Amino acid sequence: MKLPYGESNFKKIITQDFLYIDKTEYIAALEENGSYNILLRPRRFGKSLFISSLWYYYDISFKEEFAVLFGHLAVGKNPTPLHNSYQILAFDFSGIATGDVATVLRNFTGRVETCLLDFLERYDYGHEAAVEIRAKESPQEKVDCLFRLCREKKIYLLIDEYDHFANAVLGESLEMFTEIIGKGGVVRAFYETIKIAAGRGTVDRLFITGVTSITLDSMTSGFNIGKNLSFDKEFNQAMGFTRQETEALIRPLVDTCGLDAPEMMRILGNWYNGYLFSSRAVDKVFNPDMVLYFIDSFDREGCVWPEQMLDDNIASDYGKIMRLFGIGDRENNFQTLEELIVNGEIVGRHKGKLDLDMNKPFERNDFISLLLYMGFITLSGTVLSQYLYKVPNYVIQKLYYDYFRAEIEQRSRITVSSRAVENAVAELALHNNIKPLIEEIGRVLALFSNRDFMRMDEKHIKAVILTLLYQSEVYFIQSEPR
């Protein structure tokens, strides 16, 4: 079984016999849901592979390969009328270096030009067209030039990781984000040009992926043609693995090593499952990258589980986007996170739009919406007219505790020794001796200043203790139910 861990090119996966979980039924569903769609999901959730499947399905250049690429899949058995009928213009805005405004704009402009030139080369528009594109200075001028060059054609526009660099900018400076995205900003002007081309019919269809809606929502009328399907029940399982799909993936390990399948699914569920993207949906989905990491890291010869269940790539990616926790009132956000750590759940109501207006406060429900988009919480139920949200799994829980520990150390100017906590927990696990753990907790609490203790209540102390305990993976921490 060739695992597509880290692979996002649909054609490569299909033609080189990688394992592929068929999500092509959602291609037809998208086609029926209007022409301009947006589907946002947390980091490493299969977005790029889904976009790649759209590319090969709709690109006129791959019409002769349709049977090979899609014939055995759901959409290939019942193809839609529009398959292989477009020229594909694709943008990928991941990996754009940030810093100051000039750096962002230079790199954004360069990425736009690269994608436009790639389009011209793939469809043989000729050297003069490329020269004309290069001669334009701004991203909006470049893309408008291309739209004029192919005004007689029908374009399917794909934008992957649309907010990747914007989130990085936002994590550094709200003012810089507003300058780039807000009225008169270069990024906003770029999307306004796309909106105009859609109105003219040049951009016949559009699909955008990313993590949060902040960037699109902050452009207000600059780009208001897209339909956000992120919380739509029909697309709850469009990305990610269902329980049945995950069971099928681990079956070779179960059979080879004689493992207990239900117990294995229980453990994987605790670590990687738990995502529900619609209040009307029932079935949760697993993070696909996490599941593939586990299977790839599993020692098949020795039948040994991975040394660590958390993929370092996941930790790195989610660690970067955690900078968005500082948006708005950092103290109020911290209190919301503290409530999540202590209770394992919070009550609120997420918003459909996350418009960052510097004249409006960024409130608790705005922050809850941000956490939901990023995958740091998931829908769990309802409480009267509000929703109940919880931490989806152990991976996200661990990331929370790591973040909370760093915040505690920074705020209180103390250093917590993970090694000391791990040794104390090991003493408890091996010898049923809790005394070293009590002493270590007391030692850490003694490091706090009198000012820190003045604002400490039982909830805050509990959060500190839980954060310390989570530095060891000997035990799993289960929050008390409400």
What does this structure look like?
With 482 residues, the protein is of the alpha/beta class. It folds into four domains: 10-235, Rossmann fold; 243-274 and 279-309, no CATH class; 310-412, Arc Repressor Mutant, subunit A (Orthogonal Bundle); 414-481, no CATH class. Helices cover 51% and strands 9% of the residues. The chain has helices at 10-15, 25-31, 47-58, 66-70, 74-77, 101-122, 127-135, 139-149, 164-172, 174-181, 186-200, 214-218, 243-257, 261-272, 288-297, 312-321, 330-343, 364-374, 394-412, 418-431, 435-446, 450-454, 458-469; strands at residues 36-40, 87-92, 155-160, 203-210, 227-228, 345-348, 378-383, 386-390. The strands form two sheets. It has a five-stranded parallel β-sheet with strand order 2-3-4-1-5, sandwiched between helices. The chain is globular, with a radius of gyration of 24 Å. The protein starts with 9 loop residues before the first helix and ends in a 13-residue tail after the last helix. Keywords: Membrane, Transmembrane, Transmembrane helix. It holds the Pfam family AAA-ATPase_like.
Largest sheet: 5 strands, parallel
Q: Quickly count the helices.
A: 23
Strand content: 5-15%
In the CATH hierarchy, what is the class of the largest domain?
Alpha Beta
Architecture per CATH nomenclature, i.e. the level-2 architecture of the largest domain: 3-Layer(aba) Sandwich
Span of the ends, CA to CA:
44 Å
Number of domains: 4
Q: What is the CATH topology assignment of the largest domain?
A: Rossmann fold
Rg value:
24 Å
The mean pLDDT is 90
Helicity level, as a percent range? 40-55%
Q: Give unreliable regions as ranges.
A: none
Number of strands: 8
Instruction: Give the helix/strand class.
Output: alpha/beta
* Spatial arrangement of strands, main beta sheet: 2-3-4-1-5
Overall shape: it is globular
